[in-house]
């Protein structure tokens, strides 16, 4: 079984307009809402690939129905602990004429200690040996930044596989649980190591990756956007993975999709190279779609991805 954990999901409300000015009344042509959250995105990709996945996390009681209805619509198994209040809403205003975006992200309701206790108790009871648990994203108010370390330790005690996709202090603390995989980009690595964000040589990047391993990461999937990715294994192997080719439509969720694709390969006991192909294909399929990548698009792109051992 694969579990994805989203502690701070969001309802993404996008508004499209041809004119947007501050301090005056504006009008818009179109708006739409989508459920969001890194772990939820990863779960949807895995579900699209027909993997055995359950989306787990915390939802506000007052607007839970929007998420549950979408889960039921796409047939995604889920177990969310309900917390008093609302799940946050993030607003994105797209000025189509100027090709600009303004974001206003919500905070959401504070999560109670009882709610997080229920979630940890669920994981304690359900996780079995060889299960894969992916913890992703930011944290809501009320949850301390050591939570991913706690979750990782539960997974390790159950002899499962722990994958972590977060940043800053949440990642630093989560690394103490020695996650099987993390997927940072260079900006996130600089934040974790507290060094200047700039362009680094490959040799310098390798030293930074080793620092992450020294902090607890077993394997590192170093995301480089349009330049592909490098995978640094715990056996000191290095793989470079190319990107899929296509027309960029929406990059939101492509990183979460990479995690989903790689985990899909792990769940089938595929080779590292094949898992990396699925990671890149899933990321590309999402980038070339309005929503998250479909199985058909992922499988089509999978055949085009080149993986090279360095």
UniProtKB/TrEMBL annotation:
Enzyme nomenclature, EC number: 2.7.1.56
Write out the catalysed reaction.
Answer: beta-D-fructose 1-phosphate + ATP = beta-D-fructose 1,6-bisphosphate + ADP + H(+)
SUPFAM superfamilies, sorted? Ribokinase-like
Q: Known CDD domains for this protein?
A: FruK_PfkB_like (cd01164)
- Please report the stretch or stretches of sequence annotated as the Carbohydrate kinase PfkB domain: 7-294
Q: Which GO terms describe its molecular function?
A: 1-phosphofructokinase activity; ATP binding
Alphabetized InterPro entries for the sequence: 1-PFruKinase (IPR022463), Carboh/pur_kinase_PfkB_CS (IPR002173), PfkB_dom (IPR011611), Ribokinase-like (IPR029056), Tagatose/fructose_Pkinase (IPR017583)
One Gene Ontology BP term is: carbohydrate catabolic process
Alphabetical UniProt keywords: ATP-binding, Kinase, Nucleotide-binding, Transferase
Q: Tell me where on the tree of life, at the top rank, the source sits.
A: Bacteria
Q: Which PROSITE patterns match?
A: PFKB_KINASES_2
GO cellular-component term (any) = cytosol
Look up keyword Nucleotide-binding and say if it applies: yes
State its role: Catalyzes the ATP-dependent phosphorylation of fructose-l-phosphate to fructose-l,6-bisphosphate.
NCBIfam families xref list: 1-PFK, pfkB
Q: Which family does it belong to?
A: Belongs to the carbohydrate kinase PfkB family.
What is the name attached to this protein's record? 1-phosphofructokinase
């Amino acid at each position: 079984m694969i579990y994805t954990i989203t502690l701070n999901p969001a309802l993404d409300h996008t508004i499209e307009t041809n004119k947007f000015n501050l301090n005056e009344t504006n009008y818009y042509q179109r708006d739409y809402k989508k459920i969001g959250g890194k772990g939820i995105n990863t779960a949807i990709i895995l579900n699209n690939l027909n993997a055995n996945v359950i989306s787990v996390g915390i939802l506000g009681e007052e607007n839970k129905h929007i998420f549950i209805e979408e889960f039921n619509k796409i047939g995604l198994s889920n177990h969310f602990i309900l917390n008093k209040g609302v799940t946050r809403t993030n607003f994105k205003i797209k000025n189509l004429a100027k090709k600009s975006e303004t974001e206003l992200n919500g905070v959401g309701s504070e999560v109670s200690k009882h709610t997080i206790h229920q979630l940890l108790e669920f994981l304690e009871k359900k996780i079995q040996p060889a299960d894969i648990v992916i913890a992703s994203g930011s944290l809501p108010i009320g949850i301390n930044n050591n939570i991913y370390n706690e979750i990782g330790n539960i997974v390790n005690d159950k002899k499962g596989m722990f994958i972590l996709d977060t940043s800053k202090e949440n990642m630093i603390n989560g690394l103490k649980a020695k996650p099987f995989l993390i997927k940072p980009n260079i900006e996130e690595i600089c934040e974790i190591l507290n060094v200047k964000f700039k362009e680094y040589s490959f040799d310098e990047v390798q030293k930074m990756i080793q620092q992450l391993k020294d902090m607890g990461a077993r394997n590192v999937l170093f995301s480089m956007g349009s330049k592909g990715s490098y995978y640094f294994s715990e056996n000191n192997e290095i793989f470079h993975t190319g990107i899929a080719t296509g027309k960029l439509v929406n990059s939101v969720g492509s990183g979460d999709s990479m995690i989903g694709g790689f985990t899909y390969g792990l769940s089938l006991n595929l080779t590292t190279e094949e898992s990396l192909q699925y990671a890149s294909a899933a990321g590309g399929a999402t980038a070339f779609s309005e929503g998250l990548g479909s199985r058909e698009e992922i499988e089509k792109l999978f055949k085009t991805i080149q993986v090279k051992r360095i």
